[in-house]
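re the bet — no i am not wrong, look at it urself. input seq straight from the record:
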Amino acid sequence: MLSRLHRKAEALDQACLRAQGHPHDYAIRQELLNALEWDASFHPEHASPVIREVFREVHDHSTDLLIRIRSVDDPAVAPLPIAEIPSLRQRLAKLVHVLATRERKPS
């Protein structure tokens, strides 16, 4: 389950990078919107408290960004809120780090 969460975090980070580079591209906007959605199966209820806390930060921030992007009246002319993407990427990097650290620890 945590490996799926790791892949999802990396995919969201890549979508953020593309969106930063192409804030007016409708297809990239749609890709980012899809990546910002979190399925309930990604919630790490049985993971360590650190992973759960960092996941909650990422989840909350991505949900807020998703709502802001969807609230735009005309997405064809409104650019993405690029200023918010770096802080999401920082949280994603922290999540990837704690997941990678956890995976390297011996059982």
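see?? The chain has a mean pLDDT of 89. told u. also The two ends are 16 Å apart (CA to CA). so pay up
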